[in-house]
Design a protein that fits this description.
Shape: globular
Number of domains: 1
Radius of gyration: 16 Å
Strand order of the largest sheet: 1-4-3-2-5-9
Helix content: 10-25%
Structural class: alpha/beta
Number of strands: 9
């Protein structure tokens, strides 16, 4: 549970930091192109790319990366996927057939409540309990759409 909270906090800080603290540099004098929404570093850190107007399939094709896009965080505004060495943010609901991080699973002691359901996904639901989003599987034995942190 603590690991889940830590991952959520780290991703929230990354999202807030990248949107609120845009560095001012000489690059601001250069003309902007279609790539202006992307943030990248030359370090080995994972970075967030704002591709909220594209689908995961469009991103895969555009970047030519064979890595799976795994949903690692869900918020009121959208969701974040891990994609190779970086992240992408998408507006809207998590697609039905998305791959999901096991870190998003509802706690083992969670009692299903239909009023918590936000949307349907393959073999389960996206839930919102309080201010936290979870994945709830209808059948715990079928985890085809789940990935562990090491697989991401």
């Amino acid at each position: 549970m603590n690991k889940r909270i830590n991952v959520t906090i780290v991703l929230a800080v990354i999202l807030c930091g990248l949107t609120a603290c845009k560095p001012q540099s000489m690059e601001d004098t250069k003309p902007k192109n279609d790539q202006s929404h992307k943030t990248s570093h030359k370090s080995h850190e994972k970075v967030l790319k704002d591709d909220s107007d594209k689908t995961p399939a469009e991103i895969d094709q555009k970047e030519g990366i064979a890595a799976e896009q795994i949903v690692v965080s869900i918020s009121d505004d959208g969701f974040v996927t891990s994609h190779g060495d970086h992240y992408h943010f998408y507006n809207g609901e998590v697609p039905f057939d998305s791959l999901l991080s096991t870190e998003l699973l509802a706690p083992e002691d969670y009692q299903f409540d239909n009023s918590h359901v936000i949307s349907d996904i393959q073999n389960g639901y996206i839930l919102k309990v309080g201010e936290t989003y979870y994945v709830y599987l209808k059948d715990q034995n079928h985890r085809d759409n789940l990935r562990t942190v090491s697989e991401e």
